[in-house]
Amino acid sequence: MAVGIFDSGLGGLTVLDAVARRLPDTPLVYFGDNANAPYGVRTADDIYDLTTRGVQALFDQGCDLVILACNTASAAALRRMQEGWVPPGKRVLGVFVPLIEALTERKWGDNSPPRPVAVQTVALFATPATVSSRAFQRELAFRAIGVDVEAQPCAGVVDAIEMGDMILADALVRSHVESLMRRMPKPQAAILGCTHYPLVEEVFREALGEGVAVYSQPDLVAEALADYLARHPDKLGTGDQSIFLTTGDPKSVSNKATQFLRRRIEFQAAN
Questions:
Q1: In the 8-state DSSP scheme, what is residue 237?
Q2: Domains, the chain, ranges and CATH?
Q3: Out of 47, 70, 151, 192, which one is annotated catalytic?
Q4: Per residue in 60-95, pLDDT tens?
Q5: Using CA atoms, how far apart are residues 74 and 120, in angstroms rounded to an integer?
Q6: pTM score
Q7: CA 68, CA 96: separation in Å to the nearest integer?
Q8: How far apart are alpha carbons 54 and 7 in whole angstroms?
Q9: Which of 13, 70, 124, 154 is the most buried (most CB within 10 A)?
Q10: pLDDT tens for residues 212-251?
Q11: Is 70 one of the catalytic residues?
Q12: Out of 119, 194, 203, 220, which one is annotated catalytic?
């Protein structure tokens, strides 16, 4: 009874790893659209088309529930998918909700009016497409008031991580943090708004300095998924084994994925 996890590339493996630890008996079907990564510089229509294609492949594998482990897809495509594309009996969820639940200390089912929260200044680090969508700010506004969000488009970080150039990724992270902190010198919290960023989370923490609460997605998403499945067991699909699919070269993607997770991952070509 499999759950699908979609990402534009390899970043979603950070979510898959956390979900596998939290729900070890649940088969997971991962779809990485590596041939078209990164999404962060694409148009909203392009992101929507690519995301629906990948999610449909996961539905075809027997998944009734798919997690968009890609902030860019969650920001640019999720609402449009939920409003007019997702078939009856299927569900597609994004990765913003668990972050905002943690930041505001409110459950998403709490539909009371937005109210002041403890955190007043937030630094958001994300891809250019996620930043330009303002999806995080829009969703946050449904639950909290008085929060100042300063967003930094982190161009190049995903590309460097996907290429395995962690020296370049490190340098880019430090540059982007410095750029944001010139505009917001003392954020109370920092949101790592891309599932690739946990791979360089320690660099973000070091660059931000002490006193900044850093919110990273994998464990938050895994816990939220466990809670969701406990309440909606009918959304466990018919798939019965874990599979890794890619639109890229399976051998190359498998080798990179193995480096990221430090355990052997074997991808196969998506049909």
A1: -
A2: 3-94+218-269 (3.40.50.1860), 97-216 (3.40.50.1860)
A3: 70
A4: 999 999 999 998 899 889 999 999 999 999 999 998
A5: 24
A6: 0.89
A7: 10
A8: 9
A9: 70
A10: 999 989 999 999 999 889 888 888 777 778 999 999 999 9
A11: yes
A12: 194
